[in-house]
Amino acid sequence: MKRLVIRPLLALFTIASAPAAAQEALGDTAESGRKMEDGREGKGPSGFIALGPGTTPAYDGAKSYQLIPFGIADLRWKGMEFELRGLRARLDLLGDSPVQFGPAINLRFKRNSSSDGDGRVKLLDDVGQAVELGGFVGYRFGGDEKGQGEVAVDLTVLKDVNDGHDGLVATAQLSYAAYRGGRVFVNVDAQANYSDGKYMRSYFGLTAEESLRSGLAAYRPGGGLRDVGAGATLGYRLSRRWGLIARAGANHYLGDAGDSPIVEEGSKVQAIAGLALSFSF
């Protein structure tokens, strides 16, 4: 039976505490959220913020879930666009162009197996907090004057520089603006996530010592395609300034990640959901 863990507010925006698959699935929400705005272009900054509750698996491969604050924000000024999703942020230096390019950062909180783990996973070593730095490139095309039909593709590559997992992660994403009405938008998206061997061994591997301690088989995964996922984002405009954004998605572990004893003890399917109240300015 799945259990639900309620986490304290570790930070105002703390989606980065979610496992990787859920975290990356949440990323498309902000791209959808920019469609909530009234489209005005002023001399000063413009954008939106959105806050609300969300739920994600407690760690990579978990069958238990945790409640988290669900927060996103966009800020556009002087042809650039700053995007914040939880504790993941990026700066699009070409915000007025269909081409997207710029730096990116993500914070990933430690995995505390003794408090977060399911069953025997509680007996495994913790994984330290990671600070992932890198960049992204993307391209948007198509769509009518409302943005309906727009397709966006992007690739983000990040490397941990804080001795958390010491690895490299990459996410390729495709999103489609399926519907743009007077008050409603609907986006659908798909992602594929790659992780190198250091990341995989940190979150999905087990040393001989951990195997003896937990009773799970020792396991040394290699790098490769970690998971694929899909999701949908729905937005509804309540007024000129206020709106609602809802997100639901799921990822499925593949390859060495899917074969991990940690995932077998938990679940190969990692679902996420969130509901936020947005304010445009």
TrEMBL record:
UniProt xrefs under InterPro entries: MipA
GO CC annotation, single: cell outer membrane
Subcellular location: Cell outer membrane
Ranges of Basic and acidic residues composition bias in the record: 31-43
First and last residue of the signal peptide: 1-22
Keywords: Cell outer membrane, Membrane, Signal
Coarse class of the protein's main subcellular location: membrane
Disordered: annotated span: 26-48
Family statement drawn from the similarity comment of this UniProt entry: Belongs to the MipA/OmpV family.
Protein name: MltA-interacting MipA
Protein species of origin: Sphingobium indicum (strain DSM 16413 / CCM 7287 / MTCC 6362 / UT26 / NBRC 101211 / UT26S) (Sphingobium japonicum)
Gene name tied to this protein: mipA
